[in-house]
Design brief:
- The chain contains three helices and no strands.
- The protein is mainly alpha-helical and about 80 residues long.
- It has one domain.
- The model has no long low-confidence stretch (mean pLDDT about 80).
């Protein structure tokens, strides 16, 4: 149960930071920040972990999750607006 709460908190922070970087913070709320952060972390874990998700929280995994969330927001923005910012 604690692991799930940590995923939500860290996912929210990562999603919020990614939305600031991509300048979409005003368009999305906390729920979307959490979803973007968790999905970004999942995608980064799949790419960097060779098909597995890393359950450890360290600086490398946080940075990888942030990059995954930024890439996810860039893809969403591309399809939403038809171009990448």
């Amino acid at each position: 149960m604690i692991g799930f709460i940590i995923w939500i908190v860290v996912g929210g922070i990562i999603g919020w930071l990614a939305s600031i970087v991509m300048r979409t913070d005003a368009q999305q709320g906390i729920l979307l920040n959490i979803i973007v952060g968790i999905v970004g972390a999942f995608l980064a874990g799949l790419v960097m972990g060779g098909g597995s998700i890393n359950r450890d929280i360290n600086l490398t995994s946080i940075l990888a999750s942030l990059v995954g969330a930024i890439v996810l927001l860039a893809i969403v923005n591309f399809f939403r607006r038809g171009r990448v910012r």
